[in-house]
Amino acid sequence: MAWIQINTVVEEALAEPLSDAFMEIGACSVTFEDAKDQPIFEPELGTTPIWAKTKVIGLFDAETDAKQVIENLTGLVPQVSSEQYKVEQLEDKDWIRAWMDQFQPMQFGERLWIVPSWCEAPQADAVNLMLDPGMAFGTGTHPTTSLCLTWLDRHAPIDLNVIDYGCGSGILALAAQKLGARRVMGTDIDPQAIIASEQNAQRNQADIAFSLVQDFNSEPADLLVANILAGPLKELAPEFERLVKPGGTLVLSGLLETQAAELQAHYRTLGFELNTLQTKEEWALLAGTKSALV
Predict the structure, then answer these.
(1) How far, CA to CA in Å, does 190 sit from each of 47, 132, 210, 280, 287?
(2) What is the model's pTM?
(3) pLDDT tens-digit map of 234-257
(4) DSSP E strands: which ranges in the chain?
(5) CA–CA separation, 261 vs 187, rounded Å?
(6) Which tens digits make up the pLDDT trace of 102-115?
């Protein structure tokens, strides 16, 4: 099926109204893109930030009258003139296959692989997690997830009790179990994350208990892994102090390299020595132990 897309660049305040207008007049989908190379590393919790200059793209069936669409858009959002819109023809191809081709098996460390369900495992005798891209965060492509998976491969949690705090897709919990953990639990504030994690656990024949943070109840664990953001990691320090055994291990990621020293100092006040610092691009992972005397 052939498609057209109609797009324009607007200020942040107009992105959402324009998106609503696109949907109101029949767009099949609306997407936002950064128009000025303005990365957003750490949004506030509960927010969905938009770039100062945002490209708003509406997708339509190729038979759609683009001139009429633009006329309707200018009526709904008069701040954007008709001359500001661009119309582009999209190649008629198998978009589902094109999307699937973006995701290929990925290796982390020596033994751990993330394999989409439509691909063959490159190494049948490796530790293979079957995981498809979805709504919940975590398919191994983000640097922080990659850092955590590589750390787990290098420090296999054999016979350990493990907590994946902020489980997203469940990818770290699954990796921990496949790498030999005795018991794994996962928790998140997002109900969609719990659904995705449970589905991924079923797909991988993994027995992992996932629950919302409000319902999460666990004894202190040997290892806690949290791939969130620096702000929540700092706020959660007292909870992590409770959830990690004396002498246990804490792994934190989701922070920028520039935020590592502050987090190390903050956790030191609670008896953690996070001496391992690993980085990828601008992101970082901290790992270390809780004092056995705490």
Answers:
(1) 13, 18, 11, 26, 25
(2) 0.71
(3) 999 999 999 999 999 999 999 999
(4) 3-11, 29-34, 53-61, 86-90, 106-108, 112-115, 127-130, 161-165, 183-188, 209-212, 221-227, 244-256, 272-280, 283-290
(5) 26
(6) 678 889 999 999 88
